[in-house]
Specification:
heterodimer, A: mainly alpha, MetI-like fold, B: mainly alpha, two-stranded antiparallel ribbon, flat
C-alpha cells in the first residue's frame, strides 16, 4: 500500500495537492477511529454502571427469596426467575420445531421459489416489533380464554424465536459439506435419514449455539409479555395462570417510586445482562472452535 | 473416514436418481429391477415424501404466522379505523371518557424519535464499521465486533433501566441545559421550554444507542464483502486510503449500507420498553424535543391493560396495526437492499 502511495508522490507533480489529499485522508481515517470509540462507550458505560449497581444489590437471596413487601429491604425474585425459565421452556417447545424444520427446509431446498420467499419473510418477521407480537398474542391467546396465562406469554416469545432459529439452522446446515450428504446417499440412506441423522447431527453444535443465542434474545423480551404472561407477585407454576417474568419485574420495579425496588431492578438487570453475556461468549467460543474464527 | 451405519436391507446396489423428481418415475425406474426390492423403495419414497412435506409445513408456518398477525391485529383494530376514518391518523385528540381518539401525536413521536436515532447513530455506526473492516488492527477486530454484537443483544428493558437512572439524569443536568442555554438552541422552537428529563430527545438518543450496533453490524458485513480487487485497483491508481474507501469501497457497498440503515429504522420504529421508560408518555404534539411525547409502541405498552372500553382497546389495536404495516414496509425494503448485496458476494 505504501508503495502505491509513494509512487504517486514521485510522478504526481503537485506536492501541495498531494499533501492536502494525504491530510484529508488522515483526518477521515482518524474520524472513523473516533466513531468506533464513541460507539463502544455506551456499552462500557452500561456494563460498568450495571456491575457497580448490580453488585451492590445482588445477593444469593435474590435468587432464592420471594419479593419483599415495600419498605422491607432484601427479598428476591425467585418467582420471576423460575417464571422466566418456564416461559423459555414453553417458547422453545413452540419455536424450536418450527424454526429448525423451516431452517432445514431452507437449506435443503436452497434456491427454490418457496425457500426464497420463506427466507425473506423470516427476515421480515425478525423485524416485527415485539409490542405487536404482544397485542397479537393477547387477541389470539388471551382474549378467547378470558385470562392472562403463561402459555400465551411463552407462545408469544416462542414465535419471536422462530425467525432467529430458522436462519441459524439454515446457515449451520449449509456449512455441512455436500460430500457427507453424497456419501450417505451413496450408501443407500434415504434422504430423510441423511437429513436428520447425518446433516442435522453434523450441524448440531452450531444449531445449539444459535438456539442459545435466540433464547438469550427472547429471555429479555418484555413487551410481548406485558399483556400475556402479565406478571405475578406470587409463586405460580400454573401454565394457565399469569406468571412472573424477570424482565416484567424489572420494568415494574424500575418504574416504582421506592429505592428498595430500584435496587432490585438493578439486580434483575444485572442477572439478565449476565445471561446474555455468558451465552454470547459461549456462542463465540463454540463458533470459533468449529470454524477457526478467522475466515468470513 | 467415519463408518456410516449401513441399512441392512437397504437397496444399496440399486441405481437411484439422486433427487426424486416424484414418486411415479422414481419408483417405476426402481421397481423395474427386482420385484422383491420394490416395497423397500416404495417405503423410502413415501418416507422421504412425508419428511419433505413436514419440512414444507414448518417452512409454511412462517408466512402463515405473518398473515395471521396481519389478519388478527387488523381485524381487532378495524372498528377504530372504521369509526374514525382517516382522521384517526391526523387527529391529536385522546379522550378515553368521551371515546375520542387520534394517533397523530404517537405517529409523529415515533417518526421523530426514529429520525433522531438515525441521524445520531448512522455516522457513528458507519465510521465504526469502516474502522472495523478497513483500518482496525487484527487483534482489535474480534473483540470490537464482539462488543458491537453484544450491544445488540442487551435486552431493551436493561437499556430502559440504565436510561432512567443514569442517562436521564445526565441529560437533564448537563446535556439538555448545554443544548438549550449554552448553544442558544433554546431560541429555536425545537429546544425551547422547560427541561423535564423524560422527553422525545431522551428517547431518540437511547434509540440511537440501541440501533447503532445493528447498523454497524450490517454495514461491516457489507464492507467486508467488497472484493479486495476493488481496493487494490484504487490504491494502484494512487488513491489515498480515504479516497480508496470513499471512491471505491463505499459506492460498491452503498445499497447494503442503506439497507442496514433502514433495518435500524425498522428497529427504532418498533422499540418499546426503553422508549416507554424515557419518553414521558404524554399525548401532545409539541415542536420542542425537550417536551415529553409518545410513540406508538409506548402508547400501546402503557395503556393497553388499562383500556376498559371496547373502542379504546380497538384504538390501541389499530395503532398496533399501523405500526405493524409501517415496520413491514420498512423491513421489506431493507431486506431487499441487503439481500441484493449479499447475493452479489455469492
Amino acid at each position: 500500500m505504501s508503495v502505491a502511495l509513494s509512487s504517486t508522490g514521485r510522478q504526481g507533480g503537485s506536492t501541495k495537492r498531494l499533501m492536502r489529499r494525504r491530510i484529508a485522508s488522515v483526518v477521515m481515517v482518524s474520524l472513523t477511529c473516533v466513531a468506533a470509540a464513541i460507539a463502544v462507550v455506551p456499552l462500557i458505560a452500561i456494563l460498568g454502571y450495571l456491575l457497580r449497581k448490580g453488585a451492590a444489590s445482588l445477593s444469593l437471596s435474590f435468587f432464592t427469596h420471594m419479593p419483599a413487601p415495600v419498605g422491607e429491604p432484601g427479598g428476591g425474585m425467585a418467582n420471576a426467575i423460575i417464571g422466566t425459565l418456564v416461559l423459555i421452556g414453553i417458547a422453545a417447545t413452540v419455536g424450536l420445531p418450527v424454526g429448525i424444520g423451516a431452517g432445514l427446509y431452507l437449506a435443503e431446498q436452497r434456491g427454490s421459489r418457496l425457500a426464497n420467499l420463506v427466507r425473506y419473510l423470516a427476515d421480515v418477521l425478525n423485524g416485527l416489533p415485539s409490542i405487536v407480537m404482544g397485542i397479537f398474542a393477547w387477541e389470539f391467546l388471551v382474549r378467547p380464554f378470558g385470562h392472562f396465562s403463561a402459555l400465551a406469554g411463552g407462545a408469544a416469545i416462542g414465535a419471536m424465536m422462530i425467525p432467529l432459529v430458522t436462519r441459524t439452522t439454515e446457515e449451520m446446515v449449509c456449512t455441512v459439506p455436500q460430500s457427507l450428504r453424497e456419501a450417505a446417499l451413496a450408501l443407500g440412506y434415504p434422504r430423510w435419514r441423511t437429513s436428520l441423522q447425518i446433516v442435522l447431527r453434523t450441524a448440531l453444535g452450531g444449531i445449539v449455539t444459535g438456539v442459545l443465542v435466540a433464547v438469550a434474545r427472547v429471555a429479555g423480551e418484555t413487551a410481548p409479555l406485558l399483556f400475556t404472561a402479565f406478571g405475578n407477585q406470587f409463586w405460580s407454576l400454573k401454565l394457565t395462570q399469569p406468571i412472573a417474568a424477570l424482565p416484567l419485574q424489572i420494568y415494574v420495579y424500575a418504574n416504582s417510586a421506592y429505592d428498595d425496588w430500584h435496587a432490585q431492578a438493578w439486580a434483575g438487570a444485572t442477572v439478565l445482562i449476565g445471561l446474555v453475556l455468558v451465552i454470547s461468549v459461549i456462542a463465540r467460543l463454540v463458533t470459533r472452535a468449529r470454524f477457526g474464527g478467522g475466515h468470513d | 473416514m467415519t463408518p456410516l451405519p449401513v441399512p441392512t436391507t437397504g437397496p444399496s446396489q440399486e441405481p437411484r436418481s439422486f433427487r426424486h423428481p416424484g414418486p411415479p418415475t422414481g419408483s417405476a425406474d426402481a421397481s423395474s429391477g427386482t420385484v422383491r426390492r420394490a416395497p423397500v423403495i416404495q417405503g423410502t419414497v413415501i418416507a422421504d415424501r412425508v419428511y419433505r412435506l413436514t419440512l414444507v409445513f414448518f417452512a409454511l408456518c412462517i408466512p402463515a404466522l405473518l398473515l395471521l398477525i396481519f389478519v388478527v391485529v387488523g381485524s381487532a383494530g378495524w372498528p377504530a379505523l372504521h369509526h374514525f376514518g382517516f382522521s384517526f391518523l391526523t387527529s391529536s385528540a385522546w379522550d378515553p371518557v368521551n371515546g375520542l381518539f387520534g394517533a397523530a401525536p404517537a405517529i409523529v413521536g415515533t417518526v421523530l424519535t426514529s429520525v433522531i436515532a438515525l441521524v445520531v447513530a448512522t455516522p457513528l455506526a458507519l465510521g465504526g464499521a469502516i474502522f472495523l473492516s478497513e483500518f482496525s488492527p487484527s487483534w482489535l477486530r474480534q473483540p470490537l465486533s464482539f462488543l458491537v454484537d453484544l450491544l445488540a443483544a442487551v435486552p431493551s428493558v436493561v437499556y430502559g433501566v440504565w436510561g432512567m437512572f443514569f442517562f436521564l439524569p445526565l441529560l437533564r443536568t448537563s446535556v439538555m441545559p448545554f443544548l438549550r442555554d449554552t448553544l442558544h438552541l433554546g431560541a429555536t422552537p425545537f429546544f425551547s421550554g422547560p427541561i423535564y428529563g423524560p422527553s422525545v430527545l431522551a428517547a431518540g438518543l437511547i434509540l440511537a444507542i440501541m440501533v447503532l450496533p445493528y447498523i454497524a453490524a450490517v454495514s461491516r458485513e457489507v464492507l467486508v464483502a467488497v472484493p479486495r480487487s476493488q481496493r487494490e485497483a484504487a490504491l494502484a491508481l494512487g488513491a489515498t486510503r480515504w479516497e480508496t474507501i470513499a471512491g471505491a469501497v463505499i459506492p460498491y457497498a452503498r445499497t447494503g449500507i442503506i439497507g442496514g440503515v433502514i433495518l435500524g429504522l425498522g428497529r427504532a420504529l418498533g422499540e418499546t420498553m426503553a422508549v416507554t421508560m424515557l419518553i414521558g408518555n404524554r399525548h401532545e404534539l409539541s415542536a420542542s424535543l425537550l417536551a415529553p411525547g409518545y410513540t406508538m409502541a409506548s402508547l400501546i405498552a402503557n395503556e393497553f391493560t388499562e383500556a376498559t372500553t371496547d373502542l379504546h382497546k380497538a384504538t390501541l389495536m389499530a395503532v398496533g396495526f399501523v405500526l405493524f404495516v409501517m415496520t413491514l414496509v420498512v423491513n421489506a425494503i431493507a431486506r431487499l437492499l441487503v439481500r441484493r448485496v449479499s447475493e452479489v458476494r455469492v
